[in-house]
């Protein structure tokens, strides 16, 4: 699992503003094919979202996406905390779980920034009803948490793969939004004390949503890197026997 400090993460995010650098980074895992179960669950989430909020991106849809997107990181942190109870004696396993928790907590903070700022924008630019604006995404978030948590115990690869699919969907949606609304977004500011506290100062909404697009791509790739790290850990442990 890749662990980053805030400064390094933000530097990486800015590098991905370059189309060539982003395409190369995305290509590292574009061809990854998750197992059947994550594909089924991921398809259900994405299809349901498209039915309820439409296929095209919007502030309201992004609010729902971000309420759900922060959930798997919380589930991984919770699962790692639970498992640590049983692996205090195994230092390498404990270290692996500690890396999972660190990454998950960092990603949670990042996704929380997304939802706080986007919620404010959604209220300003669109009508946010109780059902589609809060109840439906919270319902999906509740089940997504337990899907991710349970899959992590059964086979953590499946949990990472489910996140890979959802983050890919988020990346595609933000990319489409930037393409469709570039002119309008460049004329709108982002008034947010929370965003300033987090440490981002975009000049306009285009820069803000571009940075979120980059975040989702990083999260997508790091989900697959987590699988590779786990495989390497097990191989190293097996080689010591």
In words, what does this structure look like?
This protein has a single domain (45-239), classed as Ferritin, CATH 1.20.1260.140. It has helices at 6-15, 19-27, 36-53, 59-69, 71-84, 91-125, 130-186, 193-198, 205-239. The mean pLDDT is 92. The protein is globular and about 55 Å long. Helix content is 81%, strand content 0%. With 241 residues, it is mainly alpha-helical. Helix 3 (36-53) packs across helix 7 (130-186). Pfam families: AOX. This is Alternative oxidase. The chain crosses the membrane at residues 129-147.
Question: Helices, strands, pairings?
Answer:
Elements: H1 6-15, H2 19-27, H3 36-53, H4 59-69, H5 71-84, H6 91-125, H7 130-186, H8 193-198, H9 205-239
Helix pairs in contact: 3-7, 4-6, 4-7, 5-6, 5-7, 6-9, 7-9
Beta-strand residue percentage = under 5%
What name does CATH use for the topology?
Answer: Ferritin
Could you tell me the number of beta strands?
Answer: 0
Class by alpha and beta content = mainly alpha
Low-confidence stretches: none
Query: What is the terminal-to-terminal distance?
Result: 23 Å
Architecture, CATH level 2? Up-down Bundle
* Oligomeric description of these chains: single chain
Major beta sheet summary: none
**What is the typical, i.e. mean, pLDDT?**
92
Run of helices and strands: HHHHHHHHH
Fraction of residues in H or I helices: over 70%
The number of domains is 1
Gyration radius from CA atoms, angstroms: 18 Å
> What gross morphology would you assign?
globular
Q: Which CATH top level class fits?
A: Mainly Alpha
Number of helices: 9
CATH superfamily: Alternative oxidase
Organism: Candidatus Kaiserbacteria bacterium RIFCSPHIGHO2_02_FULL_50_50
Main location: membrane
InterPro entries: AOX, AOX_sf
GO molecular function, one term: metal ion binding
């Amino acid at each position: 699992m890749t662990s980053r400090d805030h400064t390094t993460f933000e530097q990486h995010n800015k590098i991905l503003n370059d189309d060539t650098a982003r395409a190369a980074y995305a290509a590292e895992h574009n061809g990854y094919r998750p197992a059947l179960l994550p594909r089924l669950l991921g398809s259900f989430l994405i299809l349901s979202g498209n039915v309820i909020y439409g296929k095209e991106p919007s502030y309201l849809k992004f609010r729902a996406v971000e309420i759900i997107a922060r959930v798997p990181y919380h589930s991984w942190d919770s699962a790692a905390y639970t498992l640590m109870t049983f692996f205090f004696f195994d230092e390498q396993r404990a270290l692996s779980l500690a890396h999972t928790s660190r990454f998950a907590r960092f990603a949670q903070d990042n996704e929380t920034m997304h939802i706080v700022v986007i919620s404010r924008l959604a209220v300003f630019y669109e009508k946010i009803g109780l059902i589609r604006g809060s109840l439906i995404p919270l319902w999906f978030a509740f089940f997504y948490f337990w899907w991710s948590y349970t899959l992590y115990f059964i086979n953590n690869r499946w949990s990472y793969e489910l996140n890979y699919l959802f983050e890919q969907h988020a990346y595609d949606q933000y990319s489409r939004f930037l393409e469709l609304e570039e002119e309008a977004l460049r004329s709108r500011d982002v008034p947010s004390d929370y965003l300033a506290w987090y440490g981002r100062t975009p000049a306009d909404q285009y820069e803000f949503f571009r940075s979120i697009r980059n975040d989702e791509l990083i999260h997508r790739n790091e989900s697959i890197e987590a699988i590779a790290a786990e495989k390497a850990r097990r191989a190293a442990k097996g080689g010591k026997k």
